[in-house]
UniProtKB/TrEMBL annotation, chain B:
Record bears the keyword Signal: yes
Entry-linked Pfam families: SBP_bac_5
CDD domains reported in the protein's UniProt record: PBP2_NikA_DppA_OppA_like_3 (cd08490)
Matches recorded under SUPFAM superfamilies: Periplasmic binding protein-like II
Keywords, in A-Z order: Signal
Protein name, entry field: ABC transporter substrate-binding protein
Keyword Nucleus: no
GO biological process, one term: peptide transport
Limits of the Solute-binding protein family domain: 81-420
Taxonomic lineage from the root: Bacteria, Bacillati, Actinomycetota, Actinomycetes, Kitasatosporales
CC per GO annotation: ATP-binding cassette (ABC) transporter complex; periplasmic space
């Protein structure tokens, strides 16, 4: 009986997914084709000579004489022009399943890409396991308190998650490799030969990802615990564990799309970790191919990632449908909002004060004065944060870098938030776009943006923003999907509210706060992404004291002069914590209630709603009992 | 019931054996203590770029691992020494005759004059041509009695040096059988035979027992290619490898005492000034830049002493240069830069270079220049440098090219027709001096003429030598007989054992 129920459930789910899938599928294929064409035209768009970049990848010291370049052009058949090269490659792939040969090594592309993809997928799986565990640990307190109905007294956390999310992968990786791998000798520090080799790389990748996911989940959980079914379940005496499990199940669909993005992002973008642990993964090979303009490898790698993105996107949608399908269809969900806004806290003030103090102390110092006789010095009265590899004062560099880093990262985050929310409201359009954009390795994205926008001063910011909006759009869409299926929305609609009214007073207020917190959580990551483009000649270069750059240039000295990396890492983490906790502070329940009526109308439980909305006396009144019962059933199953 | 089923599913997923194909193979180094000499584990910095093609940069890899050999090799003084050729003599301006020694290829066939001639002919026909043959045309013919006659289109007094290039290694007929790629697997003559190549991550080599120079002490080599310097250092520190190539300066201090072996190399880091356009077209400003530079601060401060302050284009690794150096003459007096703004470019493929550039920036600003720094990845920078878009460029260049002849770097980098003239220098006196050195056949006179040409270049101030890098090779304390040479062409030989 139950089994038949379930198969039918899956079948209807599949049918729902397939319905209206035609245009989306075409859009998806169009995007993939566009991407492949973009890669195929890359050298011609950026006006860089592929023969030269290939020569440099083969042998950096070889003089690029005309004879050598001509020989390479002939060998690769570059004179045929981009369209014909692309056509031949596509033809070979579609007709014979042959993805061509690498322009650098001449080896067949497909086997090497498949092998690299295998390693990367395994690494990603490990990282996801770590991320899942991290997320659970971060939510543990909320789950514990929530399942016992004691959430009201809980002070929202988030600092821990923000600190973890701000950890740069390459820093965690090199610290883990040095301390756990070399000094303690507990785990192998490099190579990719078996399960024990997976631990350290998976940790370095999984911790920040898990922090982001855990924080998003933690954001939704209080809302779930405040839903009537949880009260009913508790009243009926169900054990706390079951309630916690059902609450998780209720919230996971909101986070799954981002999990799907991490799946693809970690597979193709784990360059630093692959390098430090010497893992033959896809990230490194696409990076090398992108720099050398080895188009066949680049195209095959990008295609593999796009396919992976489509697969994981499809899987995520399927799972979301399975978890919340009937409730979504019947519009029987509750709005997942915190029953009461978090209490005002001093934490953001503390973080802000610490950050300001660092900046204020460092600003009078000279960030560029170098003294090679005072390299890598311990923190002292003269240099409170020590000195870097060129004898510069780390405190001064951190302080002077703050302004640039903050303004740029904030601006990019704001643009990404705006784009993400706008496009997130158009899930059919943005879903495939998010998947595709997210599948492009960051360096390739930067190259493509440069190809379109030229290498102006705004290009690096554009390149980062072009990718940064994706997770936010996915998050928006996921929340929106649930919000649209809520009972109160149905009711408001039934009372004759137009789409604009719904958007303004119901959907936006419901979606914006969590997505904004998500955007702020990713702020440190944005700062790091900017610095990562430096080597393409984009963005800030040395000796600018930009934070990401500070981290990158001091990373080789992490073992000998830990303070030189710890200081910028700490301020970055501080920034993350400040951003996340301050986002809660924005929601302080200040007295003038009328100043922000839509926010005050957000409480999740119905009696509250009715009381606070005297102008809509029947809001959700009639349909509620049935729907609520459905929700309880849904939740308790 | 449902949750039980779900749990079963999860357990099944967890227990399903990890797909072993997704791991890299070749991780077991269990045979390290076989009775017949252990295997040597080596971490190399550069992965094979072209599937071990003997004509590109991979040729150096093969030579460092003791796989391939040419007719000649370079000795410690940079002169040609016998390798597969026992002896040679110059018959005429354009013709040399090489007498081969008794040797066997790794596939069992004998090294004969016809296979050697065929192998050299294949190299001359490769496209793009091996770097050692840049600007030279040669034909190799088998002569009687284990002799090979090599004829060049133009007189070539340094042909034996040229033939020492790893790109002109001798391979058996079997190497050329497959169309498309030349394969050095089992077709070379060195003490170690390449048996298995695992993409760009690892390679397995076994000892070649019939090597003409005697059996190697190590029974084989497990080579891994690890591009990241910190990862290589970690591999050595955890004992995963016996030898790690090119330890970065930043990591050298973390090695155990006696593990980091320093070798002076032919690699010179220099400041190249754009002599054609921009402020440095004015030689007085070039002189001001030269005077502003403090090379010892770079050698000590950035290279942590793993470098010698710049002496000339050629550093102390070119042993014969000592005592033959000529002081540059006729330099102009420096002018006051008065805040002239310049762009200083460098690349970050070598982590020390951005640091050098930042120290230089301060030194130049101290002298009155206004400096803007530009750091990029090398392949994104080079064409702009060659096009003269920057005023100054910091570059680390190996001054011993594949030709094995120091003059060729002077000709390539500093003459009007030079193919790699990053300083965009075109100076009559320099061209004449270089041409004189190129035409000299007698070794001692050629060396004198080379140093005179170097002085002529230095007196234009187009190039300011900064430091001569000493490369740090991580060699485990138990390893004996690692062959560290200034030309970076050898690493493992018959006498190397773990």
């Amino acid at each position: 009986m139950r089994i038949r129920d379930e198969t039918m459930g899956i079948r209807t789910t599949l049918r729902t997914c397939a319905r209206g899938g035609g245009p989306v599928l075409i859009w998806r294929i169009a995007l993939a084709t566009l991407l492949l064409c973009g890669i195929g035209l890359l050298p011609w768009l950026t006006r860089t000579n592929p023969a030269l970049t290939v020569l440099k990848a083969r042998s950096a010291e070889r003089a690029p004489t005309p004879e050598v370049l001509t020989a390479i052009r002939d060998e690769l058949g570059l004179d045929a022009g981009p369209l014909q090269i692309l056509g031949q490659w596509l033809g070979g792939l579609l007709l014979h399943g042959d993805a061509g040969s690498s322009w650098i090594s001449g080896a067949e592309v497909l086997p090497s890409v498949v092998q690299a993809l295998g390693a990367s997928l395994l690494l990603m799986a490990g990282a996801l396991a770590v991320a899942g565990a991290t997320a659970l640990v971060l939510c543990a307190r909320t789950l514990w308190l929530g399942s016992r109905g004691r959430l009201a007294r809980r002070r929202t956390g988030g600092s821990g998650a923000a600190l973890l999310a701000a950890l740069p992968e390459f820093l965690t990786a090199s610290v883990l490799a040095t301390i756990v791998g070399v000094q303690l000798g507990w785990l192998p520090a490099l190579g990719w030969y078996g399960p024990q080799w997976m631990v350290l790389p998976a940790l370095s990748l999984g911790l920040p990802a898990g922090a982001v996911l855990g924080r998003m989940l933690d954001d939704l959980l209080p809302g779930a615990f405040a839903e009537p079914w949880a009260l009913a379940a508790a009243a009926r005496g169900l054990p706390g564990r079951s309630i916690a499990r059902q609450a998780l199940r209720r919230c996971v669909p909101g986070v799954l799309p981002n999990l799907g993005l991490f799946v693809v992002g970690l597979t193709g973008g784990a360059v630093a970790v692959e390098q430090i642990f010497d893992i033959p993964g896809l990230g490194r090979s696409t990076l090398q191919a992108a720099v050398a303009q080895d188009l066949p490898v680049l195209q095959a790698g990008a295609l593999a990632l796009v396919l992976l993105a489509a697969a994981s996107g499809g899987l995520v949608r399927l799972v979301v449908r399975l978890l919340t399908g009937p409730a979504l269809r019947d519009g029987a969900l509750q709005s997942l909002h915190r029953p009461s806004p978090p209490a005002p806290r001093v934490l953001p003030l503390l973080y802000g004060a610490a950050l300001l103090a660092v900046v204020a102390l460092g600003l009078p110092r000279d960030p560029l004065a170098l003294d090679t006789k005072a390299r890598l010095q311990h923190p002292s009265a003269e240099h409170p944060f020590g000195t870097d590899a060129l004898g510069r004062d780390v405190l001064a560099r951190v302080a002077h870098g703050a302004l640039d880093t903050l303004t740029l990262a904030l601006a990019i985050s704001a643009v990404a938030l705006l784009t993400g929310v706008v496009l997130g409201f158009l899930p059919r359009l943005s879903g495939p776009l998010v998947d595709t954009v997210n599948a492009i390795p960051p360096v390739l994205a930067a190259l493509l943006v440069t190809a379109v926008a030229g290498s102006g001063p705004a290009t690096p910011a554009l390149a980062v923003a072009a990718v940064a909006w994706g997770p936010l759009a996915a998050h928006t869409s996921a929340l929106l999907q649930q919000e649209r299926a809520t009972t109160h929305l149905l009711a408001t609609h039934a009372l004759g509210a137009g789409p604009l009214h719904l958007l303004r007073y119901e959907l936006l207020p419901a979606v914006l706060p969590p997505v904004t917190r998500h955007a702020l959580l990713r702020l440190p990551g944005t700062a790091l992404a900017l610095a990562a483009l430096g080597f393409l000649g984009l963005g800030a270069g040395p000796p600018t004291p930009e934070w990401g750059l500070l981290l990158a240039e001091n990373q080789p000295y992490a073992e000998r002069a830990p303070w030189a990396v710890l200081a910028p890492a700490a301020v970055l983490a501080l920034l993350g914590a400040l951003a996340v906790t301050a986002a809660d502070g924005v929601r302080w329940p200040r007295p003038p209630r009328r100043a922000r009526p839509p926010r005050e109308r957000r409480p999740g439980t119905l009696p509250d709603r009715i009381l606070s909305e005297p102008d809509q006396p029947h809001a959700g009144a009639t349909p509620t009992p049935r729907k609520e019962a459905a929700t309880v059933r849904e939740g308790a199953r | 019931m449902r949750s039980v089923r779900r749990r079963r599913l999860i357990a099944g997923l967890l227990l399903s054996p990890l797909p072993s194909g997704c791991f890299a193979s070749g991780g077991d180094a269990s045979s390290a203590d076989s009775p017949d000499g252990g295997r040597l584990r080596v971490a190399l910095a550069f992965p094979p770029a072209e599937r071990f093609s003997p004509y590109g940069a991979d040729a150096t890899l093969l030579s460092r691992l003791g796989v391939t050999e040419g007719l000649t090799k370079l000795d410690a003084n940079g002169s040609a020494a016998p390798a597969l050729a026992e002896s040679w003599k110059r018959e005429s301006d354009r013709t040399w005759v090489f007498t081969l020694r008794e040797a066997t290829f790794q596939d069992g066939t004998d090294v004969t004059s016809s296979t050697v001639a065929a192998s050299l002919t294949h190299a001359t026909q490769a496209r793009p041509a091996p770097a050692a043959l840049a600007g030279a045309t040669l034909t190799a013919k088998a002569a009687a009695d284990q002799q090979v006659r090599v004829t060049t289109a133009d007189p070539d007094p340094v042909l034996p040096l040229r033939l020492s290039s790893p790109g002109l290694a001798v391979l058996s007929a079997g190497a050329y059988e497959k169309k498309g790629a030349v394969s050095p697997v089992g077709t070379a003559t060195g003490p170690f035979e390449l048996t298995k190549v695992n993409g760009t991550t690892a390679a397995t080599l076994d000892r070649f027992d019939d090597y003409w120079g005697g059996r190697a002490q190590a029974s084989g080599i497990d080579a891994t290619f690890t591009a990241d310097g910190m990862a290589r250092t970690n591999a050595l520190r955890t004992g995963e490898v016996d030898i790690a190539e090119a330890i970065p300066v930043s990591q050298a201090a973390s090695l155990d005492e006696g593990t980091g072996r320093e070798t002076a190399t032919m690699r010179t880091t220099s400041l190249l000034l754009n002599t054609t356009s921009g402020p440095f077209a004015d030689e007085k400003l070039r002189a001001a830049a030269r005077e502003a530079v403090d090379t010892s601060a770079l050698a000590k401060g950035v290279y942590e002493g793993h470098a010698d302050p710049g002496q000339g284009i050629f550093g102390p690794a070119l042993t014969w240069a000592e005592g033959k150096r000529v002081t540059p003459s006729g330099r102009v007096r420096a002018a006051d830069p008065k805040g002239t703004s310049i762009t200083l470019a460098t690349y970050d493929n070598r982590p020390e270079l951005p640091e050098v550039a930042q120290v230089l920036e301060q030194q130049l600003e101290g002298a009155g220049f206004t400096v803007k720094l530009e750091v990029r990845e090398y392949s994104r920078l080079e064409s702009d440098v060659l096009a003269g878009k920057f005023d100054a460029f910091v570059s680390a260049r190996n001054t011993m090219l594949d030709t094995g002849d120091p003059v060729s770097i002077l000709a390539g980098d500093y003459t009007c027709d030079g193919s790699y003239n990053l300083a965009l220098l075109c100076d009559k006196k320099v061209d004449q001096a270089v041409a004189r050195a190129e035409g000299e056949a007698d070794t001692a006179k050629r060396q004198d003429a080379t140093m005179a040409a170097e002085a002529a270049i230095l007196s234009t101030d187009a190039v300011v030598p900064l430091v001569h890098q000493r490369i740090v090779t991580g060699v485990h304390a138990s390893v004996r007989g690692a062959m560290l040479d200034p030309y970076e062409r050898t690493l493992v030989g018959t006498g190397t054992r773990p």
